[in-house]
Amino acid sequence: xxxxxxxxxxxxxxxxxxxxxxxxxxxxxxxxxxxxxxxxxxxxxxxxxxxxxxxxxxxxxxxxxxxxxxxxxxxxxxxxxxxxxxxxxxxxxxxxxxxxxxxxxxxxxxxxxxxxxxxxxxxxxxxxxxxxx
Length: 133
Prior knowledge:
Elements: H1 5-13, H2 22-32, H3 41-57, H4 65-83, H5 93-103, H6 109-122
């Protein structure tokens, strides 16, 4: 799909992430669409399309497409940080909230804390890439 964004668009039209918690919806997405092995334009394209569909499926959340995009990227970075054996000092919940709040000011600390807890307890959002970012 990297070379065929039109196919990705058609696939996304068929997806619904209604009433799903953001990290769980992102996991579901990456279980169906293989995540790239590196940060690149294709990852940005995937997150852009996912964010658009997530917001369309959950209009009552008050989250914009841009905020969901930033949160998704933050969740991927957190996932890699928490599961990588190469990272000695794991990101704390307080650090995640502080760093993410800077980019998404209207989101509550409680919500950001729940995002962190989900990644910490459930695991990586893109298991097929296992810590390769």
